[in-house]
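[SOLVED] Need 3D model of a two-part complex

Original post:
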Amino acid sequence: MSTRHTILATLALGGMVAGCAALVPGDALDARVDAMMKASFRDQGIARVDRLQQDLANEACSEALGRDLPEKLAKQVEAENMKTVKLPSDGRFLGDFKRGEAIAQSGRGMTWTDRSADPASNGGNCYNCHALAKAEISYGTIGPSLYNYGKLRGVTDPSSPAARPIVEYTWGKLWNTRAYNACSNMPRFGHLGLLNEQQLKDVMALLLDPRSPVNQ
Amino acid sequence: MRRIAAVAAAFLLAAPGLAPAQGKSAADGIAEYRKMLEDGNPADLFEARGEALWTQKRGPKNASLERCDLGRGPGVVKGAFVTLPRWFADTGRVQDLESRLLTCIETLQGIPADTIAKTGFGRDEQRNMEGLVAYVAAASRGLRFELPQAHAEERAMYELGKRAFFYRGGSHDFSCASCHGEEGKRIRLQDLPDLTKNPGDGIGFAAWPAYRVSSGELWGMQRRLNDCFRQQRFPFPGYASDVTIALAVYMGVNAKGAESIAPSIKR
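Solution:
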């Protein structure tokens, strides 16, 4: 928790502390939050209490209580997360859009009722929050619609130099969304080991392959 | 009960297909389906079992729960639910309905609270809890939430609950706010209440406990929160642990003025 005081100081400097929030003095409340989280949870299956440890990104966005971070702190979080992005080892960004669709449909993985934390047994949860292929009407709205994602961005040949910037950006966004948006709601699929490289490539194809149902 | 579940399942399967043709949203379909079951909510059966348990002499002390103080005085059930969680001087804690019932069961009947808290949902004494929460909630049906915030510890628990609500963690970086921090959002076709404010009568905090058609069980707020944390990919929250009570204070105070429809019926 060494970063906590820095974050709070930055939030205060940003003029974001609400006037009536100080019912419990800041430090005392922080200590009680830590004690409450520690005392309230226990390990169950693959879901262990170390999942409550927060990096800078999660600590800062939690303490902002849904508000935007001050610009300086947001930039710091984004820069730290940008460093984690690993491009595909073989230089190929796109896999199979059909497998990508199956990954996008699946909301499985990483709960205490799931056996394995191996990414191969995880889904991407994409449709929980985003519209993708037009045929799937059961989609969520927490994230923006991704229907026609590649088409709207003018991607006709994903392997062309012209498409390279959008292809790299999309890979980075899937790997670690918080490199681009400090408090994005989206999971950091590559960085946190939720999907493996092949699965990410398949989701990339779902978004960017002109033959994908997303781009019809 | 099984037949009701089957009818409900068939309706749910049909609903998304009907929705576009009739210009109805998924929410309309679900509301209609709830309406259909209003007179046959199986929560009634849990409520009746809870009422029987309330007056039945049980446990090592062979006593009933009729002297249990849920915050409005010993034995007063009506109106208690819509003021919970609240501060209790005898335990020196803010307690929600379920943690308060544990206190009563232990002190009046002599059944150890700890044992019940460690029992899995839907088993043994936890099955009795299903009935008890249905009974106590039903006695406040139609009343509006008004949690007290006069005690310093009640206000502190609200602040702790707010922090817990926005606490990001787990394998996916989710917090409660990831899904319940904005109005008008949904996961797949499931509407998500914005729990940072009063989401309306009978919505969110004002709809639980509820009978779950999909599992044929009655879920109290403890079980509702437990399954939220499972889907949030968090570790396991203890039954009646502080984080669950703090979250209930946060949601309950935010829901001030909302009419309770609990125990309601859910998919």
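Edit: Strands of chain A lie at 41-42.
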